[in-house]
Design brief:
The complex is a heterodimer of chains A (371) and B (299). By secondary structure, chain A is of the alpha/beta class. Helices cover 58% and strands 12% of the residues of chain A. In chain A, helix 5 crosses helix 8, helix 10 (166-174) runs antiparallel to helix 15 and helix 13 (200-213) packs across helix 14. Classes of the chains: A alpha/beta (371), B alpha/beta (299).
Chain lengths: 371, 299
C-alpha cells in the first residue's frame, strides 16, 4: 500500500523536487509548499530560476534573495491559509558571497577569496555551481528553523546526480593540499626550497598545464585553492551536514515527471541515479496527465447532433489523436507504478487546460496534489 | 533575413531552448535536412559520457560529447605523449578541471568546431548540428570562449579566441532557439534572444515547436448536456481543449513576433508516442519549406 502524498508531506521538514527539465518542477515545488501552508505550516519554497510571471505572482519581482511573503494581491486570490507561505529565489553571486562569509574563519581569509579574479568567473559564469549553492542554502535555512517546511526546486541540472553529489564534490575539490604546494611554488616564482623539492615529473606536469592554461590562470587557481583551504574545515563539516540532510528521515525527495517518452527516460535515469546512492523518492508527481478517454469513434453521434460534416471530421480526427495520447499516458503511468519503489506515493496531476504561471494555477495544482 | 548564407548551408548550428521543448527533435530534423544536401552531417549531443559517432540511415552521424573527456582529448594533442597520462592522473589537473566544469564544455564545443575545421572546405565533416543543453546552461557555454579568453592564457586562450570568432561568424554559424508557444518557454526564449543579441552572436529564426491549431474557436463548438452520449461529450471536450490551446498558442506566437521581430519556423504538435524516422523526415520537410520561403523574400 503506497502512502498518500499528504502523509509524506506531513512527516517532512524538507522536500526536494528533482527531475528533468520542463516537467514543471518549479510549480510543483510551489504547490507542495502551498499545500503545507494550507495544512497550517510555515512553508517556504526556494527556487533557482523561476519564470518571470510566476516569480512576480509569488512576490519575487526584485532580485532580493531572502524569503518573501506572498503579496496581498496574490493572497486575495486564495482561500485563507491556516499557516504561512514564503518564496525565495537564489541569486548565484550573492549566495556564493554569503557562503564564503559564513565559513571564512577570518576577515582576511574572506577578502582573499572574494578578491580573487578566478573566483568571480567561477561564481558568476562557469556552469555547475548552482547545485552546490542550492543544497548549501537549504542547509542554512533548515538550521535557522524559521520555517517548518522548506520545498526546494532543484536547478535544471542535465543529470540528477550533479545535485546529489554537490556536497561531496566540493569537499573533494577543496581537499587538494598537495597540488597547492606545487602551485604556490610558482606564485612565489623562481627557485624556492619547495620547487627544488618537487620531483621532476611534478614540475613537468605543472609546466605543461601552465603551457595549456597560462601561468596567470594557474597562479590565480592556486591562490583560490589556497584561500579556500582556510575554509576547508568548515566546508568539510558542512558537506557532511548536507549529506546528512539529504538522507534525513524528515527529508523527502520528490521526483517530478511528465507524460511523454522523454520525461519517462529522464525519470528512469533519475531513479537509477538515486538507487545508486541508496536514496529513494518518497513521492513521484506525474505531472500533466491526459485524463482517460473512452475508446471509439464519435462520427455517428456528431452527425446525429447536427454538426457540419467538415467540422465533424476534424472533431473526430482530433478525438482519435487524444484517445491515442491518453492511452499512451495511461500505459506510461502503469509502467511508473510498477517501476517506482514500493514506499513512494504516486500522484498523477491532470494536464490543466492552460499554462500555469500564477498563484491561482499553483493553487489548482496544490488541490490536485491533495486529492 | 539576417546576413549570411541560408541556415541549412551553414557549418555549425547550435540548437538550444528550455528543457522539454523538443530541442533534440528539432536538432535531429535540422541534421536530417542538411544531410540531404551534403551527404553526411554530425549531430552532437551534450552527454555525460562520450559515445559514437554512430551512423543513421539518413547520413546523420550521432555523437555524444562530454566535457571532461573533451578536455582530456584536447590535452592529448597539446601535451607530449609520455607526459599525457601522468597529467590526466594528477590531482592538480583533476582539481583544475573540477573547479571549472565549463572548461570541459568549452573544449567539447572546440572539438566539434575542429571536426568541421572551423568551416573550411574539405573538412572531415561538412557541418555539425549541436543539440546543446537548455538555455541557461547553453548561454554559459556560448559565453565561455570569451570568459576563457579573460581567465586563461596560452593554448586555451588561443583556442578560445578561434572558437569565439567561428561562433560569431554568420557565414559559418547560426544559434537557433527552440521554444513551444507557452508562457515559460517563450519567456526563456525571449530572454535568450536578448542575451545572444548583446553578445553579438548570429541568431537564426526562432523554432516554435508543438504548435496546436484548430479550425474554429471553442465558443463555436456545440454545447453538450449531461445526457449526451459519452463519446460525443468527450469528442467535443477534446475539440474545446484543442481550440483553447490553439487560441493560447496564437497569443504566444503573437507575443514572440512583437517582442523580437525574428522570423519563425512553426512546427506542429505531434500526437505520436515516439518520434521516429518518419516524423523527423516530415519535420525536416516542413523546416525546409518554411526556410525557403523566408530566405527567398527580397530585403
Amino acid at each position: 500500500m503506497r502512502p498518500r502524498l499528504e502523509e509524506v508531506l506531513g512527516a517532512s521538514k524538507v522536500v526536494i523536487c528533482v527531475g528533468g527539465g520542463g516537467v514543471g518542477k518549479t510549480t510543483v515545488s510551489a504547490a507542495l509548499a502551498l499545500s503545507a501552508a494550507r495544512a497550517g505550516r510555515h512553508a517556504l519554497v526556494v527556487t533557482v530560476d523561476p519564470a518571470r510571471r510566476l516569480a512576480g505572482a509569488l512576490g519575487l519581482q526584485t532580485l532580493c534573495d531572502e524569503p518573501q511573503p506572498l503579496p496581498p494581491e496574490a493572497l486575495q486570490l486564495l482561500d485563507p491559509l491556516a499557516g504561512s507561505f514564503h518564496a525565495m529565489m537564489l541569486d548565484r553571486e550573492r549566495a556564493w558571497a554569503r557562503v564564503i562569509a559564513r565559513h571564512a574563519p577570518t576577515e582576511a581569509a574572506k577578502e582573499r577569496i572574494l578578491g580573487n579574479r578566478l573566483y568571480h568567473e567561477l561564481s558568476r559564469r562557469f556552469a555547475g555551481t548552482h547545485e552546490y549553492l542550492a543544497v548549501e542554502e537549504l542547509c542554512a535555512l533548515a538550521e535557522v528553523g524559521t520555517f517548518d517546511l522548506i520545498a526546494l526546486d532543484t536547478p535544471p541540472a542535465p543529470h540528477a546526480f550533479e545535485f546529489l553529489d554537490a556536497p561531496e564534490r566540493l569537499r573533494r575539490l577543496i581537499d587538494r593540499r598537495v597540488p597547492r604546494w606545487i602551485l604556490e611554488a610558482r606564485v612565489g616564482l623562481e627557485e624556492s626550497p619547495i620547487t627544488r623539492a618537487m620531483s621532476s615529473v611534478a614540475r613537468r606536469i605543472r609546466d605543461e598545464l601552465e603551457r595549456a592554461a597560462g601561468a596567470t590562470a594557474l597562479a590565480e587557481f592556486a591562490d583560490l585553492l589556497g584561500g579556500m583551504s582556510a575554509l576547508f574545515a568548515a566546508f568539510s563539516e558542512r558537506a557532511r551536514a548536507m549529506t546528512a540532510l539529504l538522507r534525513a528521515p524528515t527529508t523527502a525527495l520528490v521526483l517530478v515527471t511528465g507524460p511523454d517518452a522523454r520525461a519517462e527516460r529522464d525519470a528512469e535515469e533519475c531513479l537509477a541515479a538515486l538507487e545508486l546512492r541508496r536514496l529513494s523518492p518518497k513521492a513521484i508527481v506525474a505531472n500533466r496527465w491526459h485524463r482517460p478517454l473512452a475508446e471509439g469513434t464519435p462520427s455517428d453521434a456528431l452527425a446525429a447532433a447536427g454538426v457540419a460534416p467538415e467540422l465533424a471530421r476534424w472533431i473526430a480526427r482530433n478525438h482519435a489523436d487524444h484517445v491515442r495520447l491518453a492511452r499512451g499516458h495511461a500505459q506510461r503511468l502503469a509502467r511508473l507504478e510498477e517501476r517506482a519503489p514500493p514506499g513512494a506515493a504516486i500522484v498523477p496531476v491532470p494536464n490543466l487546460d492552460s499554462d500555469v504561471h500564477d498563484v491561482g494555477g499553483v493553487d489548482r495544482i496544490a488541490a490536485c496534489l491533495a486529492a | 533575413m539576417p546576413e549570411g548564407p541560408g541556415i541549412l548551408d551553414r557549418k555549425l548550428l547550435f540548437v538550444t531552448g528550455k528543457g522539454g521543448v523538443g530541442k533534440s527533435t528539432v536538432a535531429s530534423a535540422l541534421a536530417h535536412a542538411m544531410a540531404k544536401r551534403t551527404g553526411r552531417v554530425l549531430l552532437a549531443h551534450f552527454a555525460q559520457r562520450p559515445q559514437g559517432p554512430a551512423a543513421r540511415a539518413d547520413g546523420v552521424w550521432e555523437l555524444d560529447v562530454a566535457g571532461d573527456a573533451s578536455m582530456d582529448e584536447y590535452l592529448s594533442t597539446a601535451i607530449p605523449a609520455p607526459l599525457y597520462r601522468r597529467v590526466l592522473r594528477s590531482r592538480l589537473y583533476r582539481a583544475f578541471v573540477g573547479a571549472a566544469p565549463g572548461l570541459g564544455e568549452l573544449m567539447a564545443l572546440g572539438k566539434l568546431a575542429y571536426e568541421i575545421r572551423w568551416g573550411e572546405p574539405n573538412a572531415p565533416w561538412p557541418a555539425v548540428v549541436v543539440d546543446a543543453p537548455s538555455t541557461g546552461h547553453a548561454l554559459e557555454i556560448l559565453s565561455m570562449p570569451g570568459a576563457a579568453h579573460d581567465s586563461f592564457g596560452a593554448l586555451v586562450r588561443s583556442e578560445a579566441a578561434r572558437l569565439d570568432a567561428a561562433l560569431r561568424d554568420p557565414a559559418r554559424t547560426a544559434i537557433l532557439i527552440v521554444t513551444t508557444p507557452e508562457e515559460l518557454p517563450v519567456q526563456e526564449a525571449l530572454e535568450a534572444a536578448e542575451a545572444l543579441g548583446w553578445r553579438d552572436l548570429p541568431l537564426g529564426p526562432l523554432f516554435v515547436n508543438a504548435v496546436r491549431t484548430a479550425p474554429v474557436a471553442a465558443s463555436a463548438l456545440p454545447a453538450t448536456g449531461p445526457s449526451a452520449p459519452v463519446l460525443l461529450r468527450e469528442a467535443l471536450g477534446c475539440a474545446r481543449e484543442e481550440a483553447g490551446w490553439a487560441a493560447l498558442h496564437t497569443e504566444h506566437l503573437h507575443r514572440l513576433h512583437t517582442a523580437t521581430g525574428l522570423e519563425r519556423i512553426e512546427l506542429p504538435f505531434l500526437f505520436a508516442e515516439e518520434i521516429g524516422a518518419e516524423q523527423i523526415d516530415a519535420l525536416a520537410t516542413t523546416i525546409e519549406r518554411q526556410l525557403a520561403q523566408q530566405e527567398e523574400v527580397p530585403p
